[in-house]
Amino acid sequence: MSTSIESVLVENRVFPPNDDFVRNATVAGMDAYKALYKEAEDDFEGFWKRQANEHLRWIKPFTQVLDDSAAPFYKWFADGELNVSYNCLDKHVVEGRGDQTAIIFEGDDGAVTPVTFKQLLARVSRFANGLKQAGYKKGDTAIIYLPMSIEAVVAMQACARLGIIHSVVFGGFSAKSLHERIVDVGASLVITSDGQYRGGKALPLKPAVDDALAQENTEKVRSVIVYRRTGGDISWTEGRDIWWSDFEDGQSDVCEPVAMNSEDPLFILYTSGSTGKPKGVQHSSAGYLLWAQLTVKWTFDQKPGDVFWCTADVGWITGHTYVTYGPLAAGLTQVVFEGVPTYPNAGRFWEMIGRHKVTTFYTAPTAIRSLIKASEADAKVHPDSFDLSSLRIIGSVGEPINPEAWVWYYKNVGKERCPIVDTWWQTETGGQMITPLPGATPLKPGSCTLPLPGIFASIVDETGEDVPNGKGGFLVVKKPWPAMIRNVWGDNERYKNSYFPSEFRGYYLAGDGAQRDADGYFWIMGRIDDVLNVSGHRLGTMEVESALVSHELVAEAAVVGRPDATTGEAVVAFVVLKRERPHGDEAKEIAKQLRDWVAKEIGPIAKPKDIRFGDNLPKTRSGKIMRRLLRVVAKGEEVTQDVSTLENPAILDQLTESV
Ligand code: ATP
Ligand code: MG
Predict the structure, then answer these.
(1) Is 126 in the pocket of ligand 1 (CB under 6 A)?
(2) What is the pLDDT of residue 21?
(3) Which positions in this protein are listed as binding Mg(2+) (predicted)?
(4) Cα dihedral sign, 620-623-624-628
(5) Residue of 11, 170, 272 to mutate, ligand 1, most atoms within 8 A of C-beta
(6) Ligand 1 centre distance from Cα of residue 504 (Å)
(7) What distance in angstroms lies between residue 271's CA and the mean position of ligand 2's atoms?
């Protein structure tokens, strides 16, 4: 990693928040943001102490804020005790919000089930009492393999209530991925369902659990609790399997929350696998919850009466922090959705926003790009055909959002009224890190803007030295923060080597390339592993992709480098058009148009040498483009890497053909 990453992305549009919004905001105006930031800078531990005392309910107060004696194995609020589920549920009942709706669940079929905080607490307590009776206790590990449902939230919260460390595995993963995670976390419990509904179809889940448990090193699993969702025949192992309804039958609605040490692990969650084999990220109890709650308050400017909707599955970190923990801790009413954005048609998200009067909508660029494509093909599913007047704030997470998609989202969904919070963060960071505050930060399409108060993000070179604004480099966080990863589960060395390599002076290395502009705004340029080196210029993937996506024919694009005799590396672009995939002379003609377009938008150096068209791109099941596989395909080699988290393996064949 020698020279720095360069940027040729020019994006000058600025969208300040309107005065009305600023007046009523939680963090009102840039001065308020700067004051908070400065408070953290001037008195780092004092700042976090204040936040932890104001936002969390403690069983035993902490006396020490940060213990860095074994850095990078940091401890936060280490001698304090609390219970996460108490902070998400009991707190609201005790403080008089028990009858407020906590969750509005909408099934794939459109059936709506609301649950209040009081009811949710009773359900969590019954399930937790069942777990207690079955002998599960603090420190045990459980795999949760459930569809998006109230039950998924209940299962996670019940584990948190007893100190059982959960690891949620996304319902789309195979028996093999499930098996790897069961073994890696040493699970003694699996919580699953017979099946799930997606896009009008009933898909089985339990058979993958049976397959996984038939494989070696799974003898520790004593119980499999099965929630009945789809009905129908499933195979059954007597003595091990038990229906959810039988499991909680007769249990009391009251369950004393277990006092947990701040640093006791709350969960383990595997990363998406965009850049390599997934890592088992271990999170803490107090620090994690504090940041989940605080970021909901700041980034989403929570207000009484808000209806929050994060579309992420609980199988991802976004679904942990912004479905199961943050919104509940913050006392919000939220929508939980079982289905997919395209069923019964691609207007589903917009229709649901109208139905539930959603005020805060948080989704991923991959969903936005696919809904742009769908709504340009069919006006009936265009956001204009729905009532989106309840929206106040819209957000994006998971990948860089291309400026073109940002502007579409801003105009068509936010109606030029709702700020977009483009939130940069990772499984490892626990919560949002670099993001606009909706009532403060002037927005620039494609930039995640500025770090949150208490987060000391920076861009450095390969020696850990700060680079000047306008120069690309490695995105790092210089000081620890409460919600940071505590370890790669059971692998101290991988934790240190991945996130705190010695050249970086003890800073947290995020693995993304980025730069800051003259205003100090952060622009994520892509993964460090994906950086292109063309004729000695190091280019981020993000800008070439954004240039392609800004062409009227293009829905999505992924760009990688391939070794090249003359330029060192050549740009290879994989492109999905808004229309069907072109062939023959037509493909050649469009490829030429796109090449000329990139040359005009960025410059000749970024011009793709090779353009390939596909119906889709290889993505993780969380919807992120897997460029590491495209690099192999671009070279014409066989893919031998870990593809366990790849959503659509068949697409790789299509992309081997050059135009
Ligand atoms: P793995 O670590 O296994 O390769 P992953 O990095 O995709 O998987 P996640 O933790 O889900 O797993 O994703 C975090 C990454 O997503 C970030 O490092 C960044 O590359 C990208 N990302 C998330 N949000 C944004 C955003 N708002 N803007 C730009 N990039 C983002
Ligand atoms: Mg990552």
Answers:
(1) no
(2) 93
(3) 549, 551, 554
(4) positive
(5) 272
(6) 20
(7) 6
Structure confidence at residue 266 as a pLDDT band (50, 70, 90): very high
Contacts of 301 (CB under 8 A, 6+ apart): 25, 26, 27, 392, 393, 437, 438, 439
Tell whether ligand 1 has an atom less than 6 A from the beta carbon of residue 512.
yes
CA atoms of 555 and 577, how far apart (whole Å): 5
Q: What does the mean pLDDT of the chain come to?
A: 95
Is the Cβ atom of 624 under 6 angstroms away from ligand 1?
A: yes
Q: For the chain, which residues make up each domain, given as ranges? A: 535-655
pTM of the model: 0.95
For ligand 2, the distance from its centroid to the CA atom of residue 427, given in whole angstroms, is 7
> What span, in angstroms and rounded, lies between the C-alpha atoms of 98 and 92?
6
Q: How far is the CA of 398 from the centre of ligand 1 (A)?
A: 5
Residue 1 is predicted with a pLDDT of: 34
Confidence of residue 264 (pLDDT cuts 50, 70, 90): very high
Tell me: domain 535-655, CATH 3.90.1150.10, correct?
Answer: no
How confident is the model at residue 97, as a pLDDT?
Answer: 97
pLDDT band (50, 70, 90) for residue 5:
low
Residue nearest (by alpha carbon) to ligand 1 atom 27: 424
pLDDT of residue 520: 96
Strands (E), 529-586: 532-534, 537-539, 554-564, 568-577
Ligand nearest to the CA of 272: 1
- Whether 540 lines ligand 1, by a CB cut-off of 6 Å, is no
Q: What is the pLDDT of residues 566-595, one digit of tens each?
A: 999 999 999 999 999 999 999 999 999 999
Backbone Cα Rg of the chain: 24
Q: What is the pLDDT of residues 198-229, one digit of tens each?
A: 999 999 999 999 999 999 999 999 999 999 99
DSSP three-state, residue 181: helix
Binding residues for CoA: 198-201, 318, 535
* Shortest-distance atom of ligand 1 to CA 427: 10
Q: What are phi and psi of 613, to 5 degrees?
A: -105, 140
